[in-house]
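Thread: Newbie trying to understand structure tokens

Hi all, I'm a second-year student working on a class project, and my supervisor (Dr. K.) asked me to get a predicted structure for one chain before our next meeting. I've only ever worked with sequences, so writing a 3D structure as a token string is new to me. If someone could post the tokens and maybe explain what I'm looking at, I'd be very grateful. Here's the chain:
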Amino acid sequence: MPLNLAELEAQLQTLSHDDNALKIIQNFALKLGKTNQRQRVFNEKGAIVGEPIIYQDMLLRGLIAPEEDPFILLQGDIISTDTAYFLGERITGMKFAVATSTCDLIPKRRQYATLLRVQPIKKDDPNAKQVLGELLKFSSTQRMYLPPLPNDLPDVIGNALVFDGIVQVRLEDLLMATRFASLSLVGWRIFGSLVRTIMARAGESEVRMRKSV
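---
Reply by user tm_fold:
Sure, no problem. This is what the structure looks like when written as tokens:
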């Protein structure tokens, strides 16, 4: 237990702004081999996405206690809604990933929720091979690879979950969205690792500057 602010900072430094999780993901992807081998692993059924996780199913299986808040959506769920806004403009006809934590998706707990855009990668896109190669190396924190999703068109060979740009939606509208998929446990871990790296990543010079204040 830290006894002062200095000790508190020392204990938090490897937890709040650490990027080791991202390095673990990148090393794992590297060991899988070429792009098509990586894609095969991440495209396996239930590997990083699966069917939507339903509250009643989880309750019946004893995986959630009756006294816990019932959920409609989970963080990372792939959904569609025509009520979301990006830079003040309404977006229609697009899939999104739910970025808000599950505990904040309970009805009336928050007014707004945060979404991330999901962009399809199409077979006839001249840059598809390059994009897939980059995504499946996890070398960039701008996007995360997702396999083809339910309701995707036949020419979609993968998806990019885009972290560059936040989409907003009223929580009450979001809870009426169409759910396509939920992230698996490892998919959720990857998602969480990327989100944390983007939102709270420490550079050595920034540490020095803040320490001097």
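A couple of things are worth pointing out once you decode it. The beta strands are 49-50, 78-80, 84-86, 89-91, 95-98, 112-122, 143-146, 156-162, 167-170, 178-183. Helices lie at 5-12, 20-31, 35-43, 55-60, 128-135, 171-174, 185-199, 204-212. Feel free to ask follow-ups in this thread.
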